[in-house]
Amino acid sequence: MKTDTSIEQSVREPCAREKAAGKMKNAIDFMKKRGIWAILLIIVVVLSLLEPRFLSFGNLINVLQQSAVYGVIAIGMTFLMINGYFDLSVGTVMGLCACLAVGLQDYGLAVAIIGALAVGATIGAINGFLVAKAGINAFVVTLASMFGARGLVFIYTGEQPIVGSVAAFREFGASSIGFMPTLALLFLVLLIIAELYLRYSNHGRNTYAIGGNYEAASNAGISVNRTILINFIMTGTAAALAGIMVASRMNAATPALGWPDTNLMIIASVVLGGTKLTGGYGSMIKTLGGVLAIGIFRNGMNLLNVPSYYNMLFLGIILILVVFADSRFSPAKKS
Amino acid sequence: MKRSKKAWVCLLLAGLMVVLAGCGGNNAENGEAVNGDVGDAEILIGMTANNTGIDSYQTMHDEAFRAEVERTPGVEAIILDATGDTMLQMNQVEDLIQQGVDVLVIWPVSGDAIVPAAQQAYEAGIPVLIANSPIDESGYDFVKGFVGPDNIIQGEYAAEMMIEALGGEGKVVELTGMPGYVTAINRSKGFMDRIAEEPGIEVIASEPADWNREKAQTVMENLITTYGDEIDGVYGADDNISVGALNALREAGMAGDVIITSATMFGDGYDAIQEGLIYGTVYQSPVVDAEFTVQTAIRIAEGEEIEFFNYFETPMVTVDDIDEYERPVW
Amino acid sequence: MSSDYIIKVEKVSKTFPGVKALNEVDFELKAGEVLALCGENGAGKSTLMKTIAGVHDPDPGSGCIQFLGKEACFENPLEARKAGIVLVFQELSLVPELSVAENIFLGSLPRTKFKTIDWKSMNEETAELLEELECNFKPTDLAGDLSIAQQQMVEIARSLPFKPKVVILDEPTSSLTEREKEVLFKNIRRLKEKDVAIVYITHKMDEVFEITDRITVLRDGQRTGSLKTSDATINDITKLMIGRELEDFFHKSKAEPGKEILRVENLTQKGEFQKISFSIRSGEVLGVYGLVGAGRSEMAESIFGVRKLDEGKIFIEEKEVEIKNSKQAVKLGIGFVPENRKEQGLVLKMSCQSNLSLAKLPWMHQKGFIDRTTDINTFNEYKEKLLISTPGPNQPVVNLSGGNQQKIVIGKWMCMDPKVLILDEPTRGIDVGAKAEIHKLIAKMAEAGLAVLVISSEMPEIIGVSNRIITMKDGCITAEFQESEISEQGLIDAITLDPKAESA
């Protein structure tokens, strides 16, 4: 008995309540699915009216390049947030891994990069273990590792910036493939892979399941702890990769990298995209929207010579507006 | 109804953007550059500051910089603030390159991490002037020059005053600026190198105080707990830190007994020197600094060849000659 | 003989902290039968079923559960489902953001040879399952978009691949429409034909008689009886559920009703309740009887100002008032003892004394500080009046028994000298002894001149405490009974019959 949508709806005999809910649902769906792109469009239109140079090809590529680093972390964070958690340590883990990626170059570039990734993954694993197995609140755990990673940076660097010694490393960060900066391309490729993985892999669907209904997922025999652990590890690794990317762009790393607001900017861009803080809902494409919106916004404010504190203020206001709209439109009172 | 709500959110967003444009507009009324006028200016300076607002020096510098641009006909500037973030500063340099500025002034957050950004500007044909904190030597090829105070000299001055006050004998603690920042590193280097030449003086602790008065006070309190009367002298990387340390000493009843020297004078430090609570400091005016920077940038934009290092005067000040200087308002 | 039973439970106990939920309970289920499991709230129905289905472990050494003649102890619901026992929870366990097919295969998604999810076969298999249950939605629909009834079908459908032998439905119709109920019953009969045993937990007597073959009644964690549906009457069941004569158990206000205190006219909130009108006089206890979901709590909440009314007027002592929030309601002298005291009525970690003075706080403080003496005096006064047993005023409420917690909630309002007190399910989750005390309190409050509104889905309670009863179904008042007219059958009819038929 396969029915198409229209028949099915007529079969269901909606009462007045359901009809109203249906209308509301359309609006919600619209906000959910296209909200971020509407915001992005407004930002782009307004900016290009105010500053014609904004729409130049060079500047757009510039924005993409600048968004790549945060974007990579946001990929990891999206997994984690769909899972129903978040990670406050990504900023300082990025800083730590940037320093390692530069500092370990004395032992060879491969060691430096693998070392940085391994440290990021390990911190992610510790976070994940404490949250999933020990059952400690993610806010507390990742807050602790945020400070922990910052402490490690200072210990490792002796509070000094470190400069890279391998030419290839520096060249990689500045290189382009065609017109596309390599780092931006790396971000986009990872984003597509992550979207596919999220959509089509077992792990991806389990992530949605746990974030959407923890009990149900657990009752269905999904290894909940393992999934959470993996997502924390992915987030930590993403932060490490972002650290390597930053270090490669600057051919140097400073201990203050990623401090103090990188973590919140990344959570903000994922939320702005439409992924829910409560879990169970979101996608990489949304995250791309959120990351680009913040990247474009910052770029535009710079082009417009707006002092940076306004910049932060308005970002804050936009974020609250979006989350407010989200809470308004989401069917929270389902029960 | 729900749709109208969405529209409402969008409208608010659009409104925000207009307000933002308004912020730029206000600056224009003060004679600042706004993009619309950019084309009319003969010289467009792009500036990315280290961290405006984190301390009074940088705030004053920003104001004086803007004022000097306004005073000078035919010159406009886009002034950005990297808020102490190396990555953000790199992005800002890229944005300023996109804006096609005539000369790029960078007050580096990190002298090392800014090198690739300077290289990008160099490759885009935009001359770069490094202000206030030096760029790493590997970046020298990409910049026209450096302008600012000589932080190593300042650290040395502070050390000399310390040695003088202690009579060449004693135990000293050092409170440095924000870790990782060139200014902090150089002031510390100048101080430590000079002290090292003096066998009677021992530096028993060196802790970061982040250019922050409260932090300095907390750190000093801890040091007092650890070392107590052993401390004969405190060197603060600037007066914010020294005054914070002084407050801690005051609470411990040790003010006046411990020699304090500092590498940059602020208003409170001026008062403390007059009272004899701080022994000596170095007079570095952000106004002189900013004006000198703008003028040097203009010279570069006009195609003039300049010296690589352009230091402005930063004299030593102690209780003896404090009255020759005006009290700093920053 | 015992081999006839697909499930046989002997002397199983289950203790939760502070409560003995199951006390050496016995239970049998035969293949191909539909068994009604009846009992008051807190009688242990859900606990028993959850113990069988592996959600809870029975108390160690307390008897055994046999499944298909073998002792069975499932680690988790998944194991139980694989063995053929399916528990459809009252609170459904679907992931709202995933599709129907994904929910059905949750935990064991089929994969292609490239290790990606095999959407095609998953959707096809799901479509077959849905067809088997005659469901009118698609495998690709999001679970969160389905109605509750459809979600139940998904729960049942997800068990079909495991060839279920037992399906347990916990109050499945509590939020279903009549039409959806019919579909459910059809599917129950279909499963029964396949020799699947169904346990049907319900409060609704009409459904018991419509669909079940046998009835087992629990009370206070024990089985009080098992009988064939065809031989049973409602009276039999009620007696087994309550287990004692109502007269000894309940206390009615003997006050002569005085002047009118509260009157409501045409209260309506779209989708929740419509055109509710009634009045209460001082000294009177008005009972509101109806099933969960009939709109009773929602109606009460709207009088207390926590829900917005779309329409309707409220009069206090003949004066029309507007109540926009609970603060105004409290000012007007309305007290509200909510259905869920732990979430809505108490700050669990705060002390008894602080909780008691919570509502009175705005009146008690002096220039922003709490007057400790008044605070303690008030507490001691009500501790005596309400017979609250607590080690001390500073004891956190969370450590108290349900009955004493409820007394604190009631006391909180009593010290405000309210004119009207609304109690929503005042004895839910409270043991029998304490129930009687709460009932006594209700009568005493009315006798002291309050107008009391009691909402309950426990028939004996509502009959026992009310001077007058109105019944609600689907958000409408279906009948009103004066004290002399109250009868069990009358109430059951009033909450099960179609409201339109009733009024006709």
Summarize it.
With 330 residues, chain B is an alpha/beta fold. Chain B contains eleven helices and twelve strands. Chain B starts with a helix and ends in a 12-residue tail after the last strand.
Task: Describe the protein in words.
The complex is a heterotrimer of chains A (335), B (330) and C (504). Chain A has 335 residues and is an all-alpha fold. Chain A is 75% helix and 2% strand. Chain A has one domain (35-50, 60-328). The model of chain A is unreliable at 1-15 and 331-335 (pLDDT under 50). Chain B has helices at residues 2-29, 35-38, 56-71, 86-99, 115-123, 151-166, 182-196, 213-227, 239-251, 267-274, 286-301, and strands spanning 43-49, 75-81, 103-106, 128-131, 145-148, 170-176, 201-208, 233-236, 259-262, 280-282, 309-311, 316-318. The radius of gyration of chain B is 22 Å and the shape is elongated. Chain C has 504 residues and is an alpha/beta fold. Chain C has two domains: 2-246, P-loop containing nucleotide triphosphate hydrolases (Rossmann fold); 252-350 and 419-503, Rossmann fold (3-Layer(aba) Sandwich). Chain C has helices spanning 45-52, 77-83, 100-104, 119-132, 148-159, 178-193, 205-211, 234-242, 246-249, 296-303, 326-331, 341-345, 352-356, 361-364, 372-385, 402-414, 432-447, 459-465, 488-496, 499-503, and strands spanning 5-16, 19-30, 34-38, 64-67, 70-71, 85-88, 166-170, 197-201, 214-219, 222-228, 260-269, 273-281, 285-289, 311-316, 319-321, 334-337, 420-424, 451-456, 468-473, 476-482. The model of chain C is unreliable at 500-504 (pLDDT under 50). Chains A and B meet through helix 2, helix 3, strand 1, helix 7 and helix 11 of A and helix 1, strand 2, helix 4 and helix 5 of B.
